[in-house]
């Protein structure tokens, strides 16, 4: 579904993402982890078209998207839930959701299905999102992305600022996305949660991928070592 080849993304001279390659297949559920500043958000934003790419290539469903606009990528089926949710706070839940369908792709997602997937939003349908709890805002942000009927959903820091109980609710709701066969790439700081949810774990360190394994083929210790650059292959890669 997505092929990332030798990707470099820079802020001025600074290489925030360096030589990153990965293949993500249809139906993959991938957690991207790494310390603050490892380059996770930069990579996600570059894949979504929110940041320009310095060098390397991106293919989505076998089509070159390296230089296409973010709106074109949404039309092709790639949708990002950005860190911080970026909702329109003086618009209602329903209005925010409808904005997500500005790019209308055919598929099963519609406003009623969003409300049945996120039942905590039903009562808040006509409330302005600025007055919602963090969990309700996150559900709205995910729902808005789903309204475009994406084949590939990218989620940046789903849990940020939410209580553990609310994070559980958001992840429970996302189980139905897995069942629907949606391909998901997400950034999650909570390693145990990431490992429970995803089939594959990718760890970044200083702009590079230092571990990319099926979650069933790795363990917490190995990922933690990669996270801190203690894994033998991470030292080699990062040097
Ligand atoms: N707009 C920017 N201008 C300059 N440097 C930036 C910018 N955004 C991020 N960076 C730098 O790029 C590097 C990667 O940042 P990025 O936000 O991608 O990391 P991250 O892994 O998502 O971290 P976090 O978990 O803190 O969000 C960091 O060193 C960061 O300081």
UniProtKB/TrEMBL annotation:
Keyword flag Transport: yes
Location of the ABC transporter domain: 2-231
Gene3D superfamilies: P-loop containing nucleotide triphosphate hydrolases
Gene Ontology process terms (BP): L-amino acid transport
A single GO molecular function term of this UniProt record: ATP hydrolysis activity
Similarity comment: Belongs to the ABC transporter superfamily.
Entry protein name: Amino acid/amide ABC transporter ATP-binding protein 2 (HAAT family)
Provenance organism: Marinomonas rhizomae
């Amino acid at each position: 579904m997505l092929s990332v080849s030798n990707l470099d993304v820079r802020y001025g001279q600074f290489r925030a993402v360096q030589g990153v390659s990965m293949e993500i297949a249809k139906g993959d559920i991938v957690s991207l982890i790494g310390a603050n500043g490892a380059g996770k958000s930069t990579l996600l934003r570059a894949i979504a078209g929110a940041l320009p790419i310095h060098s390397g290539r991106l293919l989505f469903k076998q089509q070159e998207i390296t230089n296409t606009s973010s709106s074109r990528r949404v039309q092709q089926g790639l949708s990002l839930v950005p860190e911080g949710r970026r909702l329109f706070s003086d618009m209602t839940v329903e209005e925010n959701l409808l904005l997500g369908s500005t790019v209308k792709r055919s598929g099963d997602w519609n406003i009623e299905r969003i409300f049945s997937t996120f039942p905590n939003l039903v009562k808040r349908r006509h409330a302005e999102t600025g007055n919602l709890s963090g969990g309700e805002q996150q559900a709205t942000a995910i729902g808005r992305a789903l309204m475009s009927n994406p084949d590939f959903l990218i989620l940046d820091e789903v849990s940020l600022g939410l209580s553990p109980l609310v994070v559980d609710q958001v992840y429970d709701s996302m189980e139905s996305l897995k069942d629907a066969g949606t391909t998901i790439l997400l950034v999650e700081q909570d390693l145990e949660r990431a490992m429970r949810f995803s089939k594959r774990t990718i760890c970044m360190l200083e702009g590079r991928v230092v571990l990319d394994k099926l979650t069933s083929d790795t363990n917490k210790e190995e990922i933690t070592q990669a996270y801190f650059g203690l894994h033998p292959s991470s030292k080699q890669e990062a040097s």
